[in-house]
Amino acid sequence: MHQDNIEPLKQRLLQFARERDWEQFHSPKNLAMALIAECAELVEHFQWLSEEQSYLTGRPGKREEVAMEMADIFIFLIRCSQRLDIDLIDAAWRKIAINEQRYPAERVRGDARRASEYK
Fold first, then answer.
1. Segments forming the whole domain that contains residue 65
2. CATH value at residue 63
3. 4 DSSP assignment
4. What is the Cα–Cα distance from 105 to 38, expressed in whole angstroms?
5. pTM
6. Mapping DSSP to helix (H, G, I), strand (E, B) and coil, where does residue 114 land?
7. Which distant-in-sequence residues (6+ apart) come within 8 Å of 108 by Cβ?
8. Per-residue pLDDT tens over the stretch 42-101
9. Does residue 58 belong to any structural domain of this protein?
10. Phi, psi (degrees; rounded to nearest 5) at 112
11. Do 31 and 75 meet the contact criterion of CB atoms below 8 Å apart?
């Protein structure tokens, strides 16, 4: 099993890119474009499925395909954060705090709308 710490993964991805001389292609713009392309590939796996089917219960082959698309997304996100010197873990914790303020549980429980739609 692999470590839960993101640092070894970041270092491995950096090494992978450098060994192939790919950092020249890993601009934030290119990585963001690759990220959105991978997100579209993930969405394709769920297109036309019902809510229940989207859990992929009993479909191990499909689960693995979805896992690999999610891994691609995660990898490009990590690489983009490296190139921009953004600490993703810190940013995620800060964003959760913002969302807790924007969407107080007692006000939004069971009602999923955009923050601007709550009055």
1. 7-104
2. 1.10.287.1080
3. S
4. 32
5. 0.90
6. coil
7. 118
8. 999 999 999 999 999 999 999 999 999 999 999 999 999 999 999 999 999 999 999 999
9. yes
10. -100, 95
11. no
Q: CA-CA distance, 46 to 107, in Å (whole number)?
A: 31
Q: Give pLDDT, residue 119.
A: 72
Give the other-Cβ count within 10 Å of 113's Cβ: 9
- CA separation for the pair 85, 56 (Å, rounded): 36
CA 38/CA 30 separation, integer angstroms: 12
- Give the model's confidence band at 3: pLDDT under 50 very low, under 70 low, under 90 confident, else very high: low
- Report how far apart, in Å, the C-alpha atoms of 101 and of each of 96, 107, 108, 115 are: 9, 11, 11, 10
Query: Taking the mean position of all CA atoms in its chain, how far away is CA 90?
Result: 15
Identify whether 25 is part of a domain: yes
Number of domains in the chain: 1
In which residue are the tokens 């997304």 written? 73
Nearest to 25 by CA among 33, 71, 42, 78: 33
Torsion, Cα 92 98 102 103, to 10 degrees, reads 50
Query: Is position 2 within any domain?
Result: no
CB 79 within 8 A of CB 26: yes
